[in-house]
Amino acid sequence: MSTEDDTIQEKKKISLKTSDDEVFDLEEDVAMEFGTVKAFFGDDGVSRDMVMPIPNVHSKELTRIIDFCTKHLALKPKAEHEEAGKKELRKFYAEYLKDESTERIMELILAADYLHVNDLLDLLNQSVADRIKNKSVEYVRKLFGIESDFTPEEEAALREEYAWAFEGVDED
Hints:
- This is SKP1-like protein.
- Belongs to the SKP1 family.
- Keywords: Ubl conjugation pathway.
- This protein has helices spanning about 5, 30, 35-40, 60-80, 85-95, 100-115, 120-130, 135-145, 150-160; strands at about 15-20, 25, 50-55.
- It is mainly α.
- The chain folds into 2 domains: about 10-135, 2-Layer Sandwich (Potassium Channel Kv1.1, Chain A), CATH 3.30.710.10; about 135-170, no CATH class.
- A 3-stranded mixed sheet has the order 2-1-3.
- It is elongated, with a radius of gyration of 22 Å.
């Protein structure tokens, strides 16, 4: 005879340890959204009970990535088959990045790249592309904290030679 406790199986967990020494216990399906985790635990010799170190990821970024993967896993099947599901997924994407600074998005890009969370990486990269589309060189430099390595004379020569590239850019 089976009891109710026997029929409810506890979901398998995978533990990750961040660069700031926080340990996160993730449900296996969420953790397997991370290509790095999937490759690590895909090896038959690796016990799922061990804690996987992720030294290039801070807990702040991992928390946001887990949030993304959890919600994305829930919405993706519906989005593949229903227009309403696609709309809900697009709304989630917009909400996910709504209040994030460019600096924060860059930190998330580094973490998502390290963990190989490709759907999130695509979303983050598109967000950066949208932020710099039709912007001036000066705006992009300021946004990313990049100093020009051209002399004023070299920059003037480049602007003259490639004038077409500077046409139609938005005001900063």
